[in-house]
Amino acid sequence: MILAAGVVSCRKDSSKPFTVQSGVVRALITVQHHGIPIPYARVFVKQGTLIFPGTDTTLYDLRLQADAEGQVIYTGIPDGQQAYTFYGKGVDPNWDSTHVTPVWGYQFLITDTQPLENKDYPVSLPVSE
User: Fold this and answer.
1) Which is nearest to 94 in space by CA: 30, 31, 29, 33?
2) What is the pLDDT of residues 87-129, one digit of tens each?
3) What DSSP string describes the chain?
């Protein structure tokens, strides 16, 4: 009788399908000039390196657009250790009223996550003239 109770309690509930949920790893990037967010800055992503590739945007793997607060979220970062270089450029309307002098800069990020881990990496991307 004890064995029968154990068999009944171990039965799978077939109404609930088995699904594997993966972790969500993100870089939360804020482009700033002297601590002031740069609205609608462009952010370029180079994967697999901690060496600045330069300002030629064709050398980058991905292009992102920041919002009005200078923020952009880069998602889809895989598990494990990864290296990224972020290159940002835009115009600081508080500093340059002509809107023609660009500000730019770069920042590196190394991620290190486990399978199914959810993690956010805040990235401050400083830019200057």
Assistant:
1) 33
2) 999 999 887 777 777 999 999 999 999 999 999 999 999 999 8
3) -HHHHHHHHT---TTS----PPP-EEEEEEEEETTEE-TT-EEEEEET-SS---S-GGG-SEEEE--TTSEEEE--PPSEEEEEEEEEEE--TTT-TTS-S-EEEEEEEEEEE-TT--EEEEEEEE-B-
53 near 85, Cβ under 8 Å? yes
The whole-angstrom separation of Cα 3 and Cα 53 is 66
Which residue, 65, 112, 56, 57, is CA-closest to 84?
Answer: 112
Length of the chain: 129
Residue 107, beta-bridge partner list: 86
Q: What is the pLDDT of residue 29?
A: 98
Distances (CA, A) of 94 to 37, 41, 43, 97: 10, 14, 20, 7
Q: Is 52 left (phi over 0), alpha (psi -120 to 50) or beta?
A: beta
Pairing of strands 71-74, 80-90: unpaired
